[in-house]
User: What shape does this take?
Amino acid sequence: MKFFLAFLSLTTLGFAEKPDGAQLFTTNCSACHMLDEMIVGPSLAEIRSIYNGKPDDFLKWCVKPSKKRPNVIEMPSMVHVGDEGLREIYAHVMKVADGVKVKEAKKGDPYVSSPVQTKRPQIQRIFMPNAGPAAVAVALDSTMSLCWDAGECRLRYSWNGGFIDGYPYWQGNGSSLAKVLGSIRYVEARSPFENAVEPKFAGYRIEKGLPVFKYQLGDRLITESFSAIANGGGFNRSFTLTPTPSAPVVLNFPEDQKVAYTSDKGKWTGSTLTLKGADTAAFTINVTFK
Ligand code: HEC
Assistant: This one.
């Protein structure tokens, strides 16, 4: 049941107006379904080939999915999205997958048959240790991963080594947490922004397989995205602020971590970065492990 609630809370997070099919798809389905490739579930191209012209059957499946393919987890019911929302998702899927070919999964690819997925990069909506119920686990590459909390709109921690073992979670129908496979190298206790206001999650889009998180902090829309520094050396973290503030922006990163901070803009004082308002239109911070 926890599982169900997690998806529920993510759909209702931060949407003032009724979201459209693309938005609903991103928050409810994109963790498990990609356009042209099987990840946790089948690709949209495959889904289109089964359900084109059959919106009612599509809805039936989403509300009450069954066990169909071997070696995959059972899809959780999407009943909380509602018929109207599912119809919008249906229209979105049929449109984006039109003419798209399914990429063949390599034979013997453990990713296809194992719940411990090895594909990189990768995003999973899953219950994680030391995070809120709306956690997103992201594998940046084969050695760098992180946990981003869509409830509090902030990075929780990042680690080196493997990705996650979701098996306890999927098996327990959401009653357990996924396991971090590797060693935690960096932890943040709060958002680096001096946020007097509650952040509002505004969904994420996927670029080159990696998420670009969007959230509202007061009257500002922030995007936050990540990439790996080679060989598990750390990660880069890019932000954009719109509209850009006229006053300087101060970001406070934790002092007690075994990392070095650098950035393409602004001035550092210890682990505090001060940026001119205009520089916040786009800036990147490099967190290098010591
Ligand atoms: C937690 C992962 C997960 C999420 C989230 C998820 N799905 Fe699935 N989905 C699966 C898996 C796994 C399968 C394959 C199940 C099987 O074949 O036994 C699947 C299969 C499907 C299928 C194919 C059914 C068929 O007849 O083969 C459709 C359609 C589908 N999902 C739609 C959706 C939609 C729409 C959403 C979002 C509203 C969604 N899924 C969210 C995991 C997920």
Confidence is low (pLDDT under 50) at residues 1-17, 106-116. Residues 14 and 200 are 5 Å apart (CA to CA). The pocket of heme C is lined by residues 28-29, 31-33, 40-42, 47, 50-51, 58, 61-62, 67-69, 72-73, 75-76, 78, 81, 89 (CB under 6 Å).
